[in-house]
Design goal:
The structure is a single chain. This protein has 285 residues and is an alpha/beta fold. The protein has 8 helices and 8 strands. It has helices at residues 3-11, 28-38, 51-60, 65-78, 95-105, 137-144, 219-242, 264-283; strands at 15-19, 45-49, 117-123, 129-132, 154-156, 159-163, 182-189, 246-251. Strands 1, 2, 3, 4, 5, 6, 7 and 8 form an 8-stranded mixed sheet that branches. Helix 2 links the parallel strand 1 (15-19) and strand 2. The longest helix has 24 residues, at 219-242. The radius of gyration is 19 Å and the shape is globular.
């Protein structure tokens, strides 16, 4: 079959898009959406976790890719000005981030969007996973970006909701109720995994590498690095378990960190370029 015929065949199919988390790195999803546009592919249903919920939620709410690029710049410039240290519940008080989402989205509700949308979240009390599919979009996105221990949980209907990445990094299972011919999962790789199987280690005093590998850092850096490793491993696990028709991996591990929202241009550019290459490999054109 000729490449063009393959591409036309997929264009005619209903496409589901699942966007994984990634903090500031998740702005790469904007670049992925831009790359999909070059193939004239528009998702008919979208699910997202954390940063994927942010980008996906804004997209299904009617924001164009051009508008998302501009919004990424605004969020990148102002994000660190919107966080404050709370007394309890999390390292960062995220009320002002919630207010920013409300400023952008107002009272827009998920069920009023033309494209079905799901945000992944977890109830911190019961550990149960949820896909939010109704309610204010700003609230749904906010619940999905509340990283446990970093942001205070979002409370709704007696639940304390946090980042869905605790159990569902790339919410491909949210797409199951829909009859789709093409399912795309997008994973943001936040750290390079150098060994698939653990190596053996001698920690006796004086062994080589003892001091070389030590790197001081504040609690946010330690948390960030730990979550990066867990999230990257989880992304591979979710893709392998759900087996989407197309898995797109965006590797930003060496280019920026999860809190560097001011590097939005790097995230979007990398997302676009890497997604284009993988789409070309998939479609053969």
């Amino acid at each position: 079959m000729k490449p063009l015929t393959v591409l036309q065949k997929y264009k005619a199919r209903k496409t589901g898009l699942a966007l994984g988390g990634g903090g500031a790195l998740g702005l790469a999803h904007v670049g992925v959406l831009k790359a999909l546009e070059t193939y004239d592919i528009s998702p008919s249903v979208v699910s997202g976790n954390s940063a994927g919920a942010l980008v996906g939620g804004l997209y299904v709410s009617g924001k164009s890719v051009r508008e998302l690029i501009d919004l990424s710049g605004e969020l990148g410039t102002n994000m660190l000005d919107k966080i404050r240290m709370p007394l309890k519940g999390g390292l960062i008080k995220s009320r002002r981030i919630h207010e920013t989402l409300l400023d952008i989205l107002g009272e827009k509700r998920i069920e009023d969007c033309d494209i079905p949308f799901y945000t992944a979240t977890v109830d911190l009390n019961s550990g149960k996973s949820y896909y939010i599919h109704r309610g204010r979009m700003a609230d749904a996105i906010f619940a999905s970006i509340c990283v446990p221990g970093v942001f205070q949980p979002f409370e709704a209907n007696g639940l304390r909701l946090v980042d869905g990445g605790v159990r569902d990094t790339i919410p491909l299972r949210a797409l199951k109720p829909h009859k789709l011919r093409l399912r795309i999962g997008v994973g943001i790789l936040k750290a390079s995994l150098n060994n698939e199987f653990p190596e053996y280690l001698d920690i006796s005093p004086g062994k080589e590498g003892e001091e070389e590998n030590a790197s001081p850092g504040g609690i946010l850096k330690v948390l960030s690095r730990s979550m990066s490793l867990m999230s990257t491993q989880s992304a591979f696990r979710e893709i392998n378990a759900s087996k989407p028709d197309l898995a797109i991996y965006i590797d930003l591990g060496q280019k920026m960190r999860v809190w560097q929202f001011d590097r939005h241009e790097t995230a979007i550019k990398t997302g676009y370029e890497q997604a284009r290459k993988q789409l070309k490999a998939f479609f053969g054109k």
